[in-house]
Amino acid sequence: MDYANLSRMTRLLPYVVLVALVGRAAAQPAAPEPPVVPAPTEPTPPPVEPPPIVDPSPPVVEPSADDPQEKKKKKKNKKTKKNQFSPYKRARLSGFFQPFFRYTLHTNDPTEDPNVDPPNVRIQRLRIALDGDLLPWLSYKVSIDPRSPELVGLLRDAYFDVTKVVPHHKIRVGQQKTQFGYENNESSSDLFYVNRAEISDALGRGTNLRDLGIGLIGRVKLGSGLRLEDAITVVNGAGLNVQDDNNRRKNVFGRVGLRYKPKNADYWIRFGISGARGDILDPGDDLLDPSDDFTEKFARVGADLEIDTKWLFAAAEVMLGRETIAGESEDLAGWYVNLVGKTPYPVGPLVRVDTFADDFRRFTFGAYYGAPAARFRMLLNYEFRQLKDGVRGDDRIFLWSQVRF
């Protein structure tokens, strides 16, 4: 027996047995693993909202419009803004023009006057105005009329107003309307008749409706719906755009009155008394010859009444005057009554009767389209001139229009 080989086999025997055991284990199927039982689940709790954030500052209270402090603050802010502007930003350009067609009827006595005015189209007025505020206490107005047939009528208004000197009043300096009565101080763009009443031209003004001078115009609230109105103008008396006065005497025009309008009412009533005193230098027949010039002294008084309601506007004036030339005096008087109907539409009827002295009487009938402030207006006026220079005059029909810009 080969003991050397047996010894080597003996040393390899454990490895052979180990390999045989491993091979047997690999040939047998693996035991199934036990099923995994899921652990019981607990219900998901609802999400927890974070606590609200509390603002430590006090709550903001919106100020009331009726709060006196808030009103004071707004007034202060408004005043501050008013001081921070350029005069060019405050300037306002406006104006109007008034074309009309006139047809004259030959209704007078042909034996007295065989002539009759031909039908005519005319631009009655063309006004361009610039006005504005320069300072909280200073305003101005300048207006021109380029269609004026004479150069002297080109410049109309040219004045400035100063407030905060006399309480509730404004001081007006420059070329302005004289303060007398109602109709003459209303703009022609707001009237309902193509021509003003005869007394407004004859007794309600001096040489012209405008003159150069200084005025004081006030409105004072008295309470209970009452308002005091007072105005006075002291002017040269030489007339529109005359830069040199022709005598040392100044003309004075003034009016004082009351206006009543109850709170929340749809009507108002206005009444005033006017007076004027001064003189007018008449150049006579020959404008270049001073030898026939003469001075006319005048003293005038007047009263006016205006009533405005939902369905009717009414205005009436009466004027009395005394004219003195070379020591001889003449008393003159006249009046007018004006009625304008109102409707739910921008149209309505109108009628006026006006007289002056003993030789003028006119009835005006017609209709209007558009309120005074409307951008476009039209008037139809029929003038029945019962007396003109003491005899029957020619009647006239006007179809008048106005455009504001």
**Helical segment count:** 4
Report strand %: over 45%
The secondary-structure class comes to mainly beta
Order of strands side by side in the largest beta sheet? 1-2-3-4-5-6-7-8-9-10-11-12-13-14-15-16
Elements, N to C (H/E): HHHEEEEEHEEEEEEEEEEE
Cα distance, first to last residue?
Answer: 146 Å
Radius of gyration: 48 Å
Percent of residues in helices comes to 10-25%
- E-strand count: 16
Low-confidence stretches: none
Largest sheet entry: 16 strands, antiparallel, barrel
Topology:
Elements: H1 3-27, H2 68-83, H3 87-90, E1 92-104, E2 120-135, E3 138-144, E4 155-162, E5 169-177, H4 198-202, E6 210-223, E7 226-235, E8 251-260, E9 268-282, E10 294-308, E11 312-325, E12 328-341, E13 347-356, E14 360-369, E15 376-388, E16 396-404
Antiparallel strand pairs: 1-2, 1-16, 2-3, 3-4, 4-5, 5-6, 6-7, 7-8, 8-9, 9-10, 10-11, 11-12, 12-13, 13-14, 14-15, 15-16
